[in-house]
Write a structure and sequence with these properties.
With about 325 residues, the chain is of the alpha/beta class. The protein is built from 11 helices and 12 strands. It has one domain: Aldolase class I (TIM Barrel). Helix 1 (about 30-45) runs parallel beside helix 2 (about 65-75), helix 3 packs parallel to helix 5 and helix 5 packs parallel to helix 6 (about 205-215).
Length: about 325
């Protein structure tokens, strides 16, 4: 199966194409519970484990670095590469800002955007020192960095808004800043939602143009989330990026079924298959597929009770079928 073929990205070789993608857990990334949770997914056979979105300012907290070193070491000791997703919070001196002014809240200034860009770079440098193989910039799912790209949210009239070129700038600047501070073989992922799918939102064509710019800036893997198109095509969105990019494309959504993941890879729609709820339900999903024990897999039934349901109730993620 192509699913279990190694892939080398710069100097990092993933033993297979299976990725446990970043997903909020309500455990805190520096807890003993999180260490066990992520280590189990690595031991279960995933080639890459991406730790959930972590605020770029977290490394400023005393003791955080050491805990993250233990986490990256444990993931790698259990057979997977380790990547840390990074997010930014547009809060300055206790005041929350918006992309553009709205509802009585002020717009983030250009200088403050530059501070967030530096935050990505500083956190990436710390993540590299903490033993991670790479970072994943979170620019998807309506999070702040995604809103900077959205014409629905970004009504700015400065260098960071208006035209598509200017709305690309925060993402491109973040990648350039990270690349300037980390070792050459350190991996940079960029997670992006390919289309807003609403009137006035950014389009697939906008996202493809953005991805081309990101690759030129130094992105090593384009992380497309979601990859499933509105018509249900598995990895359909990702396939459009594969046509224009020379870097690997990762995607999620609909790949929990082994046949779907294998087909998407075989047909060249993606290079890396993100298995999220499948690996929440059964950390041993990769090992069981590799060994031909498909019938032994604890399958996700998409009830959303123990994963999203727990998150909504601020409880640690745990599949109800375990």
């Amino acid at each position: 199966m192509l699913l279990f073929e190694p892939i080398k990205i710069k100097n990092v070789t993933l033993k297979n194409r299976i990725v446990f993608p970043p997903t909020y857990t309500c455990m805190g990334v520096d807890s003993a519970e999180a260490l066990k949770y992520y280590s189990e997914r690595a031991a279960g056979g995933a080639g890459l484990v991406i730790v959930e979105g972590t605020n770029v300012n977290a490394f400023l907290v005393k003791g955080f670095w050491a805990k993250m070193r233990r986490l990256s070491d444990s993931i790698k000791e259990n057979g997977a590469a380790a990547v840390l997703q990074l997010v930014v919070s547009p809060v300055f001196n206790g005041e929350e800002t918006w992309v553009s002014s709205r509802d009585g809240k002020r717009a983030i200034t250009g200088e403050e955007i530059k501070q967030l860009v530096k935050g990505f770079a500083n956190a990436a440098k710390e993540a590299a020192a903490a033993g991670f193989d790479g970072i994943d910039i979170h620019g998807a799912h309506g999070f702040f960095w995604n809103k900077m790209f959205s014409p629905i949210h970004n009504k700015r009239e400065d260098d960071y808004g208006g035209s598509l070129e200017r709305r690309m700038r925060p993402g491109v600047d973040a990648v350039l800043a990270v690349r300037s501070t980390v070792p050459n073989d350190f991996l940079v992922f960029y997670r992006h939602t390919p289309s807003e799918e609403v009137d006035g939102g950014y389009t697939l064509e906008d996202s493809i143009a953005f991805a081309v710019k990101l690759e030129a800036a130094g992105v090593d893997v384009m992380d497309i989330s979601p990859g499933k198109m509105p018509d249900g095509t598995i990895a359909g969105y990702a396939a459009h990026f594969k046509k224009v990019l020379s870097i690997p494309v990762m995607t999620v959504n609909g790949l929990n079924i082994p046949e779907n993941a294998e087909k998407a890879l075989q047909e060249g729609r993606c290079d890396l298959a993100g298995i999220c709820r499948g690996l929440i339900a059964d950390p041993e999903w990769p090992n069981k597929v590799r060994e031909g024990r498909i019938g032994d897999i604890i399958k996700c039934v998409e009830c959303n009770k123990g994963c999203y349901g727990n998150i909504r109730n601020s409880l640690p993620v745990k599949c109800v079928r375990q």
